[in-house]
Design a protein that fits this description.
Blueprint lengths: L7 E8 L4 E8 L9 E6 L2 E10 L2 E10 L5 E9 L7 E9 L3
Antiparallel strand pairs: 1-2, 2-3, 3-4, 4-5, 5-6, 6-7
């Protein structure tokens, strides 16, 4: 994210016993692993839930992976400020496999 002045990456782990993924985010601004989101893929859609901070304010977060093909995927992040009753999408990405 050159336009925002930092770089980031994720670490993914899979708990075989629970059949659950954990996704951890770290960026070059803080250099610290954030709290993970946890979830799984069902019927071709991955939903991963956790907590985050939005300008210091605790917020629930969901990552959704969908429209997954061998060459592409869609990812979205949304925040909930009301205990998960409603979600505000604040980041989406379209992925295409490089040849």
């Amino acid at each position: 994210m050159a336009s925002r002045g930092f770089q980031g990456l994720t670490f993914r782990t899979f708990n075989i016993e629970r059949r659950e993924w954990s996704i951890y985010w770290v960026n070059s601004s803080a250099g610290v692993l954030q709290e993970p989101v946890f979830g799984r893929f069902e019927d071709g859609v991955g939903r991963f839930y956790g907590v985050d901070l939005d300008n210091g304010r605790p917020v629930q977060v969901i990552y959704v992976w969908k429209d997954i093909t061998p060459t592409s995927a869609h990812w979205a992040q949304a925040f909930s400020y009301d205990g998960g009753r409603s979600w505000e999408v604040n980041w989406t990405m379209e992925f295409t496999r490089a040849e």
